[in-house]
Specification:
Distance between the termini: 46 Å
Number of strands: 7
CATH class of the largest domain: Alpha Beta
Order of helices and strands: EHEHEEHEEEHHHHH
Number of domains: 2
Largest sheet: 5 strands, parallel
CATH superfamily of the largest domain: NAD(P)-binding Rossmann-like Domain
Radius of gyration: 20 Å
Strand content: 15-25%
Shape: elongated
Length: 204
């Protein structure tokens, strides 16, 4: 498969998840973090998914997948261990022009799901092209030690500075501005001082 990495805007977009076990739960958690509107089709739900359903965070259709369920969805994620279901859902999704991902079933995937590290608005995704999800997860866990929670504040400050300046600045300008003193201010929790310094450096 030839992969082209992208980051999708899924806020308020409907996504179908077929399956109700632990794998489906992990997928739903990621979708909710992205602000998507998941619908689950499954005759059973894990405890975590039941909690989401009771809280109204997901829509649950209490039955097995049926033809026609794909209609109206932006994406389809399949999380079952039934190859026949994977094949049926993939075929219908593709017929409707909807991208589909079937867990651990590459022939029925139009895209893969990377191992993801989030620090606020900062998202780091690691993919091995579906060849070794375990390796992607191990690399992501290593990155967690480097990209500490300080990066949440750094991403927020950088985003605010970019919005205030309005102008598009070159990458070299940003690299100079994101210096060690800015990182020190972030690490010591001096948010406003960090923002002031960043703006000054970007305007210089």
């Amino acid at each position: 498969m030839g992969f082209y990495p992208i980051v999708l805007e899924l806020r308020d977009r409907p996504v179908l998840v077929v399956g109700g076990g632990s794998v489906a739960e992990r997928k739903v958690d990621g979708l909710l973090q992205a602000g998507a509107r998941p619908t689950l089709v499954s005759p059973m739900l894990s405890e975590g998914l039941q909690t989401h359903a009771r809280a109204g965070r997901i829509r649950w259709i209490d039955r097995s997948y049926r033809r026609g369920d794909v209609a109206g969805h932006a994406l389809v994620l399949v999380a079952t261990d039934d190859g026949a279901v994977n094949s049926e859902v993939a075929a219908e999704s593709r017929a409707h022009g909807v991208w589909v991902n079937a867990a651990d079933d590459p022939p029925h995937c139009d895209f893969t799901l990377p191992s993801v590290l989030r620090r606020g608005e900062l998202t780091i995704a690691v993919s091995t092209g579906a060849t070794s999800p375990a390796l992607a997860r191990a690399i992501r866990e290593e990155l967690e030690c480097y990209f500490t929670d300080d990066y949440r504040m750094l991403a927020d400050v950088a985003g605010e500075a970019r919005r205030e300046l309005g102008a598009r600045l070159g990458g070299e300008t940003w690299r100079r501005a994101l210096d060690s003193e800015l990182r020190r201010l972030i690490a010591t929790g001096q948010r406003e001082a960090a923002k002031t310094r960043l703006l000054e450096r970007l305007r210089a």
